[in-house]
Structures are given as structure tokens and as C-alpha cells.
Amino acid sequence: MKRHLLSAADLSRADAELILSTAAELRELADRPIKKLPALRGRTVVNLFFEDSTRTRISFEAAAKRLSADVINFAAKGSSLSKGESLKDTALTLEAMGADAVVVRHGASGAPHRLAHSGWVRSSVVNGGDGTHEHPTQALLDAFTMSRHLGQGQARSLDGRRIVIVGDVLHSRVARSNALLLHTLGAEVTLVAPPTLLPVGVGTWPVEVSYDLDAALPKADAVMMLRVQRERMHGGFFPTAREYSRRYGLDGKRMATLQDHTIVMHPGPMVRGMEITADVADSDRSVIVEQVTNGVAVRMAVLYLLLGGSTPAVGGEE
């Protein structure tokens, strides 16, 4: 693996499969009474979050602590950042603290790349979500979840599996990272969204595009619903919430058209009743809660591999 994880495009198939296989080993910890390993004892991981986040920050914190790393949570609100401190000065502070890895969540696309390639820090940088650009560890945990349910052969390959991603692709860093990673892993990805919620240049992505959800669903092996990100919208992207749900929401009637093995996913947080109804979110097909559990294992694998653990990831527990 490279020194940083900034984009799903940075991962070769071998890199991605190494992360997923390492995560599979670490995933077994979730079912053990003692969930901690000494693999990263003495290392320091900083969660540098310029945007609010619950799921991602806690997931990275749990991942680092289960590997026995020290964790520093650095939130923009209430810190020097809210007083006007620059990204450079913040980075120099982290360097002085001896951070080995920095997980960055930022509202501006490209901020983690800036930090990684600036020369300000010697630590590994992990993109925890930047603007509407990418969220590579979310894509990895999604692929890991799919491989556990849909994977074929000993390597749990996703070759030829059909993945449908539905909703606000325009503002979704999850959609972009998933499109890139799933293509790398051999899956066939279809994006379904209204034309107003597709980004410029989507034709260059390794995906098919459709505006007809009902036509795409029966062929899908996995359906991923995306939240409509109203906080990033400044204008009318669709007539009404009711109209959006009617055309692009997943309800019980649409779920009945899925194949027997098809799973339903969502990166969270969900807006129940908008892009997905409660009965679908809570159904046996839904792996949404499992995605959260798998996220800790995948982020453990990423931190372990980036920080070059010299001992086996799974071995002597504390």
C-alpha cells in the first residue's frame, strides 16, 4: 500500500483485496469478549474533523483503540480552527504532537490531499471524507459488506456482481468512491438518479447511468440508497420530497421486485421515508447496521497496514 489513503483510485485490486482480507481477520474480534490487540501500541492517531460526524469519527476512534493506539480527537468547533487558525498551522501542531496517522474530514474537496502532499506532516493521511469528492474507507466497508454476502469463491470475489447506487450522486462522496472501488474489484455499477443530481463528467466514471429505478432493481445484487443532502443544495433539484420518494425511494413494493439474495445498503445517516422506508431499512434484506460493525474492522485494517504493523494483525490479545 501507499503511504496515504486519499482516494479509492489510489488502490490497486491487490491493495483493496489486502485490506479486505485483513479486515476479515480483524472482523472476528467483534464477536470476542476481548476486542483489543497490541498491534499499534505506542502509535498516535489523530482524528481531525472540520465537519460534524458521528459514525465516521467514532468508527476510526474505535478502530485505533482496538489496535492499542493512542487517539486524539480534534474537532474544529471550539478549537483554534474556529478562531481562524490555518490548516498549515494545525498540521504543524499535529506534527509537534508526534502523530503517526491523521484522519481528515473536511468540507472542502481536496483538503486531505493538500495536507498529505504539503510537506507539513510526516504522518500517514487518511481521507475521512472531503467535500463532495471522496470517502474511500466508506467504499471499502461497503465492498467488504458486499463480499461477505455476495462474494464468490475463496476470495469472496465481486466479479460480475451488479451494484445499483440510487439518489443524490451529485453531492455524494460515497457514490464516487464506491464507483471507483467496485469497478476495480470487478463489479458492474449502475447509478440511478434524476438528471439534476448527477455530477458533470459522470460519463467518464466506470459506471452505467439510468433514470429508471424500477428497471434497474430486478437485476441488482445489491442496492445502495443515498441520502438527499439538502444542506449542500442551493436551489430546486427536484419538485418535492414526495415526488422524489415516488420516483427514487425504496419502499416495500419496490423491494418485492428484488432477487432473493439481493441486499439493501445505506451509508447513513438515513432519512426514513425519503429515500428509504422504515420497513425496508429494518427488513431482513437490510445490512445497514452490519455496515457500521464492518466499518470498524475495515478501518482497523487500513490503520494497521498504513502504519506498517510488524507483527501479525491477529495474534496475542491483551
UniProtKB/TrEMBL annotation:
Gene Ontology biological-process annotations: 'de novo' pyrimidine nucleobase biosynthetic process; 'de novo' UMP biosynthetic process; amino acid metabolic process
SUPFAM superfamilies: Aspartate/ornithine carbamoyltransferase
UniProt family annotation: Belongs to the aspartate/ornithine carbamoyltransferase superfamily. ATCase family.
Pfam families, alphabetized: OTCace, OTCace_N
Keywords: Pyrimidine biosynthesis, Transferase
Domain of life: Bacteria
PROSITE patterns: CARBAMOYLTRANSFERASE
Segments forming domain Aspartate/ornithine carbamoyltransferase Asp/Orn-binding: 160-306
List of residues binding L-aspartate: 83, 173, 227
Catalysed reaction equations from the record: carbamoyl phosphate + L-aspartate = N-carbamoyl-L-aspartate + phosphate + H(+)
Cellular component, GO, one term: cytosol
Binding site for carbamoyl phosphate: 55-56, 105, 135, 138, 268-269
GO molecular function: amino acid binding; aspartate carbamoyltransferase activity
Subunit structure, interactors included: Heterododecamer (2C3:3R2) of six catalytic PyrB chains organized as two trimers (C3), and six regulatory PyrI chains organized as three dimers (R2).
E.C. number: 2.1.3.2
Secretion signal span: none
Ranges of residues in domain Aspartate/ornithine carbamoyltransferase carbamoyl-P binding: 3-147
Protein name: Aspartate carbamoyltransferase
Gene3D superfamilies: Aspartate/ornithine carbamoyltransferase
Originating organism: Nocardioides soli
Gene assigned in the entry: pyrB
Involved pathway(s): Pyrimidine metabolism; UMP biosynthesis via de novo pathway; (S)-dihydroorotate from bicarbonate: step 2/3
The keyword Heme belongs to this UniProt entry's keyword annotation: no
Functional summary from the UniProt entry: Catalyzes the condensation of carbamoyl phosphate and aspartate to form carbamoyl aspartate and inorganic phosphate, the committed step in the de novo pyrimidine nucleotide biosynthesis pathway.
